[in-house]
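During the second half of the funding period, the structural biology subgroup turned its attention to how the target accommodates small molecules. The most pressing case was alpha-D-glucopyranose, which had performed well in the primary screen but for which no bound structure existed. We therefore specified the complex as follows and requested a full 3D prediction, including the ligand pose.
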Amino acid sequence: MASPERIQWFSSLKYGMFLHYGIYSSIGRCEWTYWLDDFTVDEYAQLEKNFHPDEGIADEWAQTAKEAGMKYMVLTTRHHDGYCLWNTATQDYNSVKGTPGRDIVAEYVEACRKAGLAVGLYYSVYDWRYKCTWNKKKSAWTEEDAKSAKDFLAMVYAQVRELLTNYGKIDILWFDSTWLPEDTTAEELYQDLIDMARELQPGILMNDRTGVKCDFGTPERAIEPAKDRAWESCLTLDPVSWGHVPYSPSRKTTPNVVHDLMFTLAGGGNLLLNSGPTAKGWLHKGEKQTILEVGEWYKKYAEAFRNITTSPLDDYGSIFSCCGEHVRFIGSDDPCVHYMFTKCWMGTEFWVGRVGTEVESVTLLPDNTPVEFHTNGRNRLILTGLPETAPDPYSTVFKITFKEPAKVYTIPDSERGSL
Ligand code: GLC
């Protein structure tokens, strides 16, 4: 495991950009096109001929992330198709020896550093080109399968070593989709890989996706708070694909992402928001606009995100909870100060609760405008004198200061009646 300080540092990053970019981006049919469209290895390799990333794309990624308030990035250095975006000595099938003639990983790492962002590298521990990937039934392996498994593992170790040796300090190694044949534990195959990574990059943070338990969990396309460890939700802007798809009719909108962000942060996690750059590597215009609009919102309420803690008021769930579908709470470093994020607007009154601690003041962010309030006989907090329409089209934020550390009002059995 990384040190508690490093894990804490990772959790403090809060918001990052995930990028799926590779030769699949050149045809815009999802990063799984190799498998989905039943390419042979040779046919797929032909796509490489049309892979022409423009100069300057990595700076666009990093500058956009920075402008949006993100603190880190993770780039697919190699997806399940096996194509490497760096100058690997393990195979010629890479962006330096191939058509682009450029080391995209080097450009990316440099752009992150220039923008002051932490550097994350995605690496797929899976490769469709290898026969062993298609046959996990070890007992039925031919000699060829066994050789393929050996070659595959040698490649993984060699490539990870390159990535962690040749590009200076790497903050995050983001493994994906482990290859694990039957009757084999992840530790048998990958514990040495993890150890090697920590030796090469002592401060590195790694996720669990090799199957070996590491520093943080990565719920995919889901916001699933983990209580006892660091976690990061990875979500796509396109509803399905991580790689670029030009004609997606239902990409996430700005309020969708704002809500994802506040739900993730309220649960104590990080949000790694994915965008699939276009064939030539530029961010998709609509996705970029959404990222920047969310960034405006995120920066507008910076006060609420400065020292995030989970709030006891965020006991999301039942009719007796403090927090319904319409709000989320984020705590701060002061147990008396909590931020309430709205997901809808009720007009001149806004009610929430039950709160179990007396409220000292309520203000409306970002200007801290005082808000009138009272509580009713069932400890519901009711804000009054509010504007008819929501002050913020995505999510309005209130700061609530309590007289003591805030807690939820627990309904005594005597008040539940027959419920
Ligand atoms: C899955 C998919 C992959 C995507 C990843 C992101 O493992 O196979 O396409 O890169 O999730 O979390």
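Two results from this model are relevant to the next phase. The first strand starts at residue 15 and ends at 19. Residues 113 and 119 are 8 Å apart (CA to CA).
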